[in-house]
Write a structure and sequence with these properties.
elongated, metal-binding, mainly alpha, copper ion binding
């Protein structure tokens, strides 16, 4: 009897692997330290409005790590 539920789980897992397989492997605070540092320094020195380039670069990096930002 355990075979049919396993098959159902496999079938449902097959329809949703992007969300399952793309889960981040690390915490968001530890991901993309390079872009995070550049973003944070820019915001401190110039303000958020002047740093959209670095903010977007950090978001792109986070998305590549599997975060939904």
């Amino acid at each position: 009897m355990s075979s049919p539920p396993a098959q159902q789980k496999e079938g449902s897992a097959t329809t949703t692997p992007p969300s399952t397989d793309e889960k981040p492997k690390k915490k968001i605070c530890c991901a993309c330290p390079e872009t995070k540092k550049l973003r944070d320094e820019c915001i401190v020195q110039h303000g958020e409005d002047a740093c959209t380039k670095w903010i977007e670069a950090h978001k792109v990096c986070l998305r590549s790590e599997g975060f939904n930002v």
